[in-house]
Design goal:
This protein is mostly beta strands. The chain is built from 1 helix and 24 strands. The chain is elongated and about 75 Å long.
Length: 352
């Protein structure tokens, strides 16, 4: 395990924290102590984090812990200036407990897990506001080590337990199944079928925003091989299905990753992120694009929200669209969408 740390200004006393890594597949993990849980966005109609205090009685067994590659732990004074009080970096750890330090008083804890930055990259951070300039790049995202943040307020003066619940920066788009129904048509098979994401927001700020406009776009308007080559895991944006005949149903369970994009209206500089199916019917290339997280018109639903999962089951009934960037008419395919909170969740307990 590698640990590095530095202290900020105006520290008053040393209070040590035990950082206990508890990783769970459920949304709430139980402790015999009082827990302060920053509320997660747990539905597609709420963005505002709130804090609630729960009293629970037992500890849930931990199963299949998600790997953590690195932790960057910041403690800020929770006041008008929000200056840095303490920082610590932990790498290559397989321990359940580590220690960090802070001064006494109101504090704001901010943790980055599996970030793309090294210790020296944080040297310019002297306040909470300094974090607003840090943006994670989707090209560095991996399925094994998702970038996550956790944040909560606390008063450091005695023994208690502070729970910080991690939220992934990205969201997941799941193509669960693809069916084909060409009854009454003069064609019966799609060949060279593949699926991918376009107009993908390439960056995400560490500090969460209510409205996220794309700042740098990956696969702008269509599949871009150059963009895919920059990805650590190109399969997070592109998967191949082969062929499918009329009457067939393929269970795919393809899982893609993307950063939030919930711009209220589409424009040339802020296009909606789309899930695209592309294939050939009798040699003609056809596209079936879907605006992710939005209704058919794309104007009255939320778009892509951080740490959510968007599940699609698609039935293709016609030739779709002539462009990957023009949503297909509903009579050419049926797309059933489900939106849910990301069920896999990481939790850390801060004892002090």
């Amino acid at each position: 395990m590698k640990i590095s740390a530095y202290r900020g200004r105006a520290s008053l006393a040393h209070i040590y924290y035990d950082l206990l890594c508890l990783i769970s597949n459920s949304w709430l993990i139980h402790s015999p102590l009082r827990l302060v849980l920053p509320a997660l966005v747990c539905s597609c109609c709420s963005h505002s984090p709130e804090t609630e205090i729960l009293e629970v009685k037992s500890i849930q067994e931990i199963q299949d812990p998600a790997p953590i590659r690195s932790l960057d732990i910041f403690m800020f004074h929770d006041g008008e200036m929000m200056n840095l009080d303490a920082y610590q970096r932990i790498e290559e750890t397989d321990r359940w407990e580590v220690q960090t330090a802070s001064g006494k008083g109101d504090r704001r804890l901010f943790i980055i897990a599996n970030g793309q930055w090294k210790r020296d990259d944080w040297m310019g951070v002297n306040s909470y506001q300094s974090l607003s300039g840090f943006k994670s790049d989707l090209e560095n995202e991996t399925s094994s080590y998702p970038a996550m943040t956790a944040e909560c307020g606390l008063y450091a003066d005695g023994t208690k337990t502070i729970w910080a619940e991690f939220r992934r920066l990205c969201s997941e788009v799941v193509l669960e199944s693809v069916s084909c129904d060409f009854k009454g048509k003069n064609y019966e098979e799609i060949t060279d079928l593949k699926t991918y994401l376009i107009n993908v927001n390439g960056v995400c700020r560490l500090i969460e925003e209510d409205i996220v406009m794309p700042e740098r776009i990956i696969n702008m308007g269509g599949l871009n091989e150059g963009d895919l080559e920059k990805m650590k895991e190109p399969e997070l944006l592109l998967r191949h299905l082969g062929s499918i005949k009329s009457g067939q149903n393929k269970i795919t369970e393809f899982r893609f990753r993307c950063f939030p994009n919930n711009c209220p209206e589409e424009s040339p500089g802020s296009p909606f992120t789309r899930l695209v199916l592309e294939g050939k019917i009798d040699g003609e290339t056809c596209y079936w694009p879907i605006n992710i997280g939005r209704n058919d018109s794309g104007s009255t639903s939320e778009g892509i929200i951080r740490n959510h999962r968007y599940i699609y089951n698609v039935t293709i009934t016609g030739k779709g669209s002539a462009s990957p960037d023009i949503p297909a008419y509903s009579e050419t395919f049926l797309a059933k969408m489900e939106v849910e909170k990301w069920e896999e969740k990481e939790e850390y307990a801060i004892y002090y």
